[in-house]
Amino acid sequence: MATSTEGRFQNVAIKVNMSVPVHLTAKDTERYPEMVKLLTSLSQHVTEDGISTQMQAEKQQAEEAMRKDKADYFQYHILHHELHELLIDHDISCEEMVPSSQDMQFYTAVKKCLYTAEACDYLHPIPGKEEGQPPVTLLDLTKEKMNRANVHARGLQALQQQLIPRLEERLRKKCEELEAFHHPPNSTEGSDDLAFARATRLPDLLQSECTELEEKKTKLRLDRAKRDKQFWHYYQALMECLEVLEKLINRHRLGLQADSDSITSDWLSARCHALCLKIKVFEAKLLCETYTPDVVSALKQIRHHLNLAIQEREKDVSRLQRALQAYESVGMGFDALVKEYEQLQGAIDNKKWALTELKQSMAPEEMTDWKT
């Protein structure tokens, strides 16, 4: 039942999102039903792009008028451009082959009429400063004056009768080339008349292809919007799943981990205590193996002798300290007596050394005589 209700809200959200440029979810439609009603009623007055229907109609009307004006402009532009190409092709052919006098007169007249018409387009009259004054133009030129100066203006109709078939033939060839580029011909297809017939249907074909392309773009845009909405729906569901997983982890995993850590710490503490006791046992065993009864008795005797030696040294130190205190009690003259004693002791040592050297250097006989 919950699944069907959620699906219904989801369908409502998709319907609203496709009619109005918003991004609603199933939860939004469930929480805010009045807003869904407002958006549904609003979708009757606006388009899927958020533009009002009246403005959309005016926009379509303006686009239609602009399309018509644009088509007229391109029609005149194509004729003007084709006429220039005709004259350029004639100039190029004149470089290769001398034309006949009749063709020369015809193209000269066409050039004159074309240049006159182009010059007339650049005449922009400025209204007079005062009322009743005629408009002012560059060099006081007007279209009437320039047309009167064109000697070929009178035969313009005859020129058009010769010019129009040539332009039509050139445009026909270009249409056939364009149709052949768009749809390469096969060997089984018909003659040039059929090719021209296909070329005349090319605008409708291109228009249908453009319409089909726009429809595909619209469908692609709608698919992209659906994909984005579906992505956010999946994202929201994924976030909810993550919240549930986080709660489960906090509730179960972390609690079990705390108990496991407590048990592990108790086990490590007991293991450390056992290791400490084992180390103490090894220490006691090592001491028992090192200090046997014989070694202990020998160490006791050594300790007794060391204690006696320490006592004797302490007695010597106390005796020397008393003597030093007695010497210090004599006063300042004791230092001079000590220095004099050191000098006399040094002199005696020197005389003893000199006497020893003298005895060693004397011969035995001399030594005997000396003794006698």
Overall mean pLDDT score? 79
Structural class by secondary-structure content = mainly alpha
Low-confidence stretches: none
Number of beta-strand segments: 0
Morphology = elongated
Q: Count of helical segments?
A: 12
Tell me the major beta sheet: none
Element string (H = helix, E = strand): HHHHHHHHHHHH
Radius of gyration based on Cα positions:
64 Å
Distance between the termini: 152 Å
Q: Can you walk me through this structure?
A:
The chain is mainly α and 372 residues long. Helix content is 82%, strand content 0%. The chain has twelve helices and no strands. The chain has helices spanning 2-19, 26-31, 33-42, 53-96, 101-121, 143-149, 156-182, 192-200, 202-290, 293-330, 333-361, 364-371. Helix 7 crosses helix 8 (192-200).
